[in-house]
Amino acid sequence: MTRVEEFEQLRPLLFSIAYRILGSVSEAEDAVQETWLRYELSATRPASARAFLSAVVTRVSVDVLRSARVRREEYVGPWFPEPLLTDPYEDPAHSAELADSLSMAALLLLERLSPLERAVFVLREVFAFGFPEIASAVGRSQAACRQLAARARRHMNAGRPRFEADRKEREELAERFFDAFREGNVDGLRELLAADVSLVADSGGKAPQWARGFFGAAAVSRVLTAFLPPFVRIGGVVEPHQVNGQPGAIFRDRDGKVVNTWTLDILDGRVQAIRTVSNPDKLGHVGPVADAWAVLRETRLARSDAD
C-alpha cells in the first residue's frame, strides 16, 4: 500500500480526532492536511501508520488549539463549535463514545479542559488509544497521561447530565418540536420545552444576534412562533437534519443557501437548550451561505405586513 493509500484510509479517523480537539471543521481539515505534508516528507515509513499519523494530527491540533484559545477569548458573543453534519469515522466497537463526544454539549464541556487534557481525553475515552500511544502523541510520560485522563474525566463527568434520552426518544421529540414550530403552535411548543430552556445563538458579530439569548419556556416559545411563519412566507425552509449527532435543522433561504444551523439538547422528555450557529465563517462547509441580514430584514417586513 502506498503512503497516499494509507493516508486516505486513515483520513476519516484523523479528521475526527482533530475536530474533537479543535471544535472546528476548517481547522480540523487544515490539521489533517498539515499531517499529510509531514507524512509525505518523513524520511522513513513508520511501523504503524495509524499510530504515527494519529500522533502527528494530535500534536498539530494541540498547537492550533493553544493559539485558537486566545482568539476565542476575544470572540464576539457566545462561541459554539462549527456544526458537523456527518462524522466521517465509524467504529462499531466505540459507536456510543463517538456519538456522545460529538454533541455540542460535549464539545462545549471539552472547552473547559486544557489543550493537553482535551487531547488525552479524546484519544483515550473516545478512540480507546493505549497510554503508550497517547504518551508518544502528546510528549508526556504514561504516568502523566494517566493523570491528565483522570482529571479530564472528572471534569467531563461533573458537567454531564445524569440521565440522557436515547436516540429514538430524541428523534421523536425533535419531530414533534419541528411540527409544532412549523404550525406556529405556541402551546404545543411550550409543552416540549423545559421550564428553564435556553435559546442562544453564535453569530460572532457577523450575523443577526438574538441579544444574549432567550430563557424560559414562555419566552422561547413566543420568539420561535413569531419568527417562523414570516420566514416561511418569504420562501425560507427548515430542513430537519442531524447536527453533531443530535436532532437539529438547517435553515435555508429561498435559494437554498444556509442561514444557520440549530441543534437541540433533549433530556427528560424536554428540549433543554437550542443552540444556533449563524456566523457565516462557520457555515461554508455546510453549503453556500445566505445573507442573514437580508433574510432578517425580509422576515421582519413579512411579519409587519401580516400584523
Automatic annotation (TrEMBL):
Q: Which Pfam families match?
A: Sigma70_r2, Sigma70_r4_2
So which domain of life are we looking at?
Bacteria
**GO BP field:** DNA-templated transcription initiation
Q: Name any one GO molecular function.
A: DNA binding
Name the UniProt key words of this record, in alphabetical order. Sigma factor, Transcription, Transcription regulation
Residue ranges of domain RNA polymerase sigma-70 region in the record: 7-69
- The leader peptide range reads none
Quaternary structure note: Interacts transiently with the RNA polymerase catalytic core formed by RpoA, RpoB, RpoC and RpoZ (2 alpha, 1 beta, 1 beta' and 1 omega subunit) to form the RNA polymerase holoenzyme that can initiate transcription.
Q: Which family does it belong to?
A: Belongs to the sigma-70 factor family. ECF subfamily.
Matching entries from PANTHER family are given as:
ECF RNA POLYMERASE SIGMA FACTOR SIGJ, SIGMA 19 FACTOR
Q: What is this protein called?
A: RNA polymerase subunit sigma-24
